[in-house]
Design brief:
The complex is a heterodimer of chains A (about 220) and B (about 525).
Chain A: H1 5-11, E1 19-21, H2 31-38, E2 56-60, E3 68-71, E4 76-78, H3 79-83, E5 89-94, H4 101-116, E6 124-129, H5 137-146, E7 153-157, H6 160-169, E8 183-187, E9 194-198, H7 203-214
Parallel strand pairs in A: 5-6, 6-7
Antiparallel strand pairs in A: 2-9, 3-4, 3-7, 5-8, 8-9
Chain B: H1 5-37, E1 47-50, E2 54-57, H2 58-61, H3 64-67, E3 74-76, E4 79-81, H4 86-89, E5 99-101, H5 117-126, E6 141-142, H6 146-158, E7 171-178, H7 184-205, E8 225-232, H8 240-250, E9 255-257, E10 260-261, H9 266-275, E11 279-280, E12 283-284, E13 295-296, H10 302-314, E14 324-328, H11 332-345, E15 352-356, H12 362-365, E16 374-378, H13 381-390, E17 398-402, H14 403-406, E18 421-425, H15 430-446, H16 454-474, H17 480-490, E19 517-521, E20 527-529
Parallel strand pairs in B: 7-8, 7-9, 9-11, 10-12, 11-13, 14-15, 14-16, 16-17, 17-18
Antiparallel strand pairs in B: 1-2, 1-6, 3-4, 18-19, 19-20
Helix pairs in contact in B: 1-6, 7-16, 8-9, 10-11, 16-17
Classes of the chains: A alpha+beta (about 220), B alpha/beta (about 525).
Chain lengths: ~220, ~525
């Protein structure tokens, strides 16, 4: 039906680009994904809890955009201000109505804070919402509470365009929030490179990475 | 203690009626509480362990978090969450297809042997799938006793096992709802658009000789003709819920799509929630304050505007304001807009005065205004016209108008008021908006459908595209919960063909657009934003 363009727009959606996801494997993830995160530490016979290490580690250059953000307490600041208190940084991207990846990502940060104990204050954790129009400061505050965030872990939102610019600068812009993938960034200091850790990782491996880039124990 | 005889009878009857199917029903109900609430039959909290011995508990550990209410799972980034309904877990060779997604995962999952109660227990408690392989690091390993597992399995076996009402082998029926306050020409425009699109879509989806078929079209049971019911309401709002129930009894529908009202929508929302029917994106000015699961909206209408305006008038860049006068009609839209504005301003502004149009003559509504007053008009074009006849010049220093009530073009502002008018404008401005509206305009032109209300018609057009996408993704899984979940996940993935800057939902989110501009009308009629997009 090509006679009417409006007709083509509406009633012929581009099925060609859609790939059917055939007969799903209940509970298990596809081999590729499971393998990626679990094969480095094969599960023991008696326990099938995989230890998660990053599937990929890379160092990336990031040109931080000049954008304004809103912190969970309602304070407005620039991205560089949010990152410039001199401490090493850990950064992730989340949204509060995300059900699968983000709770695990946030749990990772909570775990890092609790495992660091007294050392907690020496590192600044940032979570930037990739659903900024929904995640207003009030919701971020509630989310922080739910995740048992302690001082030193801040949540940010902003204009949709600002968050998009940040995601692009970090090379993780994927068009829509539902396309997001688990990534954690780490920076030892303002003049140091960003370390990008892909995949679902454990608190131990993130702390190990943190110690290695900051030259600590 | 003396229990009345009647009460005793009722107790006996209650226990008798529960008895027959009782055992199984309560098992599935126990399973439902594990699945949805993370509460064990013992009353304790569900506990699971993820990698690194990270414990999840209670609500956070509930299956519903990832596998969703429908049990159909979904896809987040490159992380698939497989369906866990009985139909997918325990079925043999003849497995249905669960998800069709434009963002294909890197791997297409291979078929698996059917689960048994024993292998399901192993999967849930030890994290080993039916092939004996470890499952995703995201899936917790749960501490469940065998009696807990029995309850969970009983729940999964019946979860999304029946197609929802309104779905036949070859057809699926939708309704649209129009309230009696709507101008018949507008109601007709809505119905014409839906009928035209349904007809065209059904024609194009039918197999035609010699036409190449898409792979999807060859999958069994994935093509259903769309049928439309138009539910026109009459009389007082208090009778609408019964009218809708009556319509529904005669012709069950799978979901409600679009709808039109300039007044009360509360009874419609109550009907949708009561009957558990998804009601997708009606064109309404005021959205009921009561939280809804089934109703999805473009925005919160005038309620959102009241919040945005309050935020603007009391925000960092606030204009100097002495007294605010708000003018509204004593009806659902006016009363609620005014009430929400008043509440939003609490603690930020000392003087807010109400002037109710029904109670005073149009000629005196704008009397006694000072040059430095701020006036807010929660009014439709007809009311504004009457006021402008009495006061050809805007009497106050600043006057704000509702973009929702005036529509995309804001053409309802009296000519002599335009230059000084400010809009609370919940739409995109400029070329970006016109670009987005092009497809709808082109489609209406192609089908010789008149433009009577572009705000509503562009919203209806969006719904038609959305319905096409959603039904494509549902495949042969017409469950209402799944429909809502797909809409929550996929709304922002499609092309934006509306006047809103962007539409997006997430789990539990019910309003797709979340802000507005403060804007003015330029001499050529173009609308120009004076602020950034304000999200209250």
């Amino acid at each position: 039906m090509k006679t009417k363009s409006g007709d083509r727009i509406v009633w012929r959606r581009p099925f060609g680009v859609m790939l059917a996801w055939l007969t799903l494997n209940p509970i298990a993830v596809p081999d590729g994904l499971a393998g990626e995160q679990a094969t480095e530490h094969p599960a023991h016979e008696h326990s099938t809890l995989p230890t998660a290490a990053p599937s990929e580690r890379s160092e990336v250059g990031v040109n931080l955009p000049e954008v304004k953000l809103l912190r969970q307490d309602g304070k407005s600041m620039s991205l560089s201000e949010a990152m410039a208190d001199g401490r090493p940084l850990m950064l992730n991207f989340i949204f509060t109505t995300c059900t699968t990846i983000c709770p695990v990502q946030s749990h990772l940060f909570a775990s890092v804070q609790s495992k660091l104990g007294k050392e907690r204050d020496r590192v600044h954790l940032l979570s930037i919402s990739i659903d900024p129009e929904n995640d207003r400061p009030r919701l971020l505050q509630a989310y922080a509470k739910k995740m048992k965030a302690k001082p030193g872990w801040d949540f940010y939102t902003g204009a949709a365009g600002s968050v998009e610019a940040i995601l692009k600068a970090f090379g993780v812009y994927r068009g829509d929030k539902m396309n997001h993938i688990p990534v954690t960034f780490l920076r030892a200091g303002a003049d140091k490179p960003w370390v990008r850790l892909d995949g679902i990782i454990s608190a131990e491996s993130l702390i190990r990475e943190y110690r290695s880039v900051t030259g600590g124990g | 203690m003396r229990v009345s005889f009647n009460a005793l009878i009722i107790l006996v009857i209650a226990s008798l009626t529960q008895a027959p199917a009782g055992a199984d029903t309560s098992l599935a109900e126990q399973g439902r509480r594990i699945y949805q609430e993370g509460i064990l039959p013992s009353g304790g909290r569900l506990v699971g362990v993820r990698f690194g011995n990270a414990a999840v508990e209670g609500e956070d550990a509930a299956c519903v978090k990832c596998h969703r209410r429908s049990g159909m799972g979904g896809l987040e980034g490159n992380t698939p969450v497989p369906p866990v309904t009985g139909r997918f877990l325990f079925a043999g060779k003849d497995k249905p297809l669960a998800l069709l997604d434009t963002r294909s995962p890197r791997d297409i999952t291979q078929a698996h042997a059917p689960y048994t109660d024993a292998s399901l227990t192993k999967a849930v408690t030890r994290g080993t799938n039916v092939q004996g392989r470890p499952m995703s690091v995201l899936m917790p390993r749960y501490a469940l006793k065998s009696s807990d597992m029995k309850a969970l399995a009983a729940y999964l076996k019946q979860l999304s096992s029946q197609m929802s009402p309104g779905v036949g082998q070859e057809t699926v029926r939708f309704a649209t709802i129009v309230t009696p306050d709507v101008d018949p020409a507008h109601a007709q425009a809505l119905e014409k658009m839906l009928r035209t699109a349904f007809q065209q879509r059904n024609f194009n989806e039918r197999p035609h000789p010699g036409q190449m078929r898409m792979p999807l079209q060859m999958l069994p049971h994935t093509r259903r003709d769309w049928r439309l019911s138009v539910w026109a309401l009459k009389g007082a709002p208090s009778t609408w819920e019964a009218q809708l129930a009556d319509y529904y009894r005669r012709e069950p529908v799978f979901a409600v799509i679009s709808g039109l009202s300039h007044g009360d929508w509360e009874p419609v929302q109550a009907f949708c929630d009561g009957q558990q029917i998804p009601c997708l994106f009606p064109s309404v000015d005021y959205v009921p304050a009561k939280q809804s699961y089934q109703a999805l909206y473009f925005s919160r209408g005038v309620g959102l505007e009241a919040q945005v305006l309050s935020r603007y008038l009391s925000g960092e860049a606030k204009p100097a304001v002495s007294r605010i006068v708000q003018v509204f009609r004593e009806d659902t839209v006016g009363r609620n807009a005014a009430m929400e504005f008043r509440q939003a301003l609490v603690g930020t502004h000392p003087r807010l005065e109400d002037r109710v149009l029904n109670l005073i003559s149009p000629a005196s509504v704008l009397n006694d205004l000072h040059a430095d007053d701020t006036v807010v008009f929660w009014l439709q074009p007809n009311d504004l016209k009457a006021l402008a006849q009495a006061a050809p010049e805007l009497p106050a220093r600043a006057s704000y108008f509702s973009g929702r009530l005036l529509g995309i073009a804001a053409s309802g502002i009296p000519e002599s008021w335009k230059a000084g008018a400010k809009l609370v404008y919940p739409f995109e401005v400029g070329a970006k908006r016109d670009q987005a509206l092009r497809s709808a305009r082109e489609w209406l032109r192609n089908y010789h459908l008149p433009t009577v209300d572009e705000t509503m018609q562009s919203e209806v057009f969006f719904n038609l595209l959305l319905l096409t996408d959603l039904t494509t993704q549902l495949l042969d899984n017409y469950y209402r919960d799944y429909l809502i979940e797909r809409a929550e996940d996929m709304l922002s993935q499609g092309e934006n063909v509306t006047a809103y800057p962007r539409l997006s939902l997430g789990t539990g989110q019910r309003f797709a657009s979340k802000g507005a501009y403060i804007a003015h009308i330029e001499s050529g009629g173009a609308i120009k934003a004076d602020t950034d997009w304000i999200i209250p």
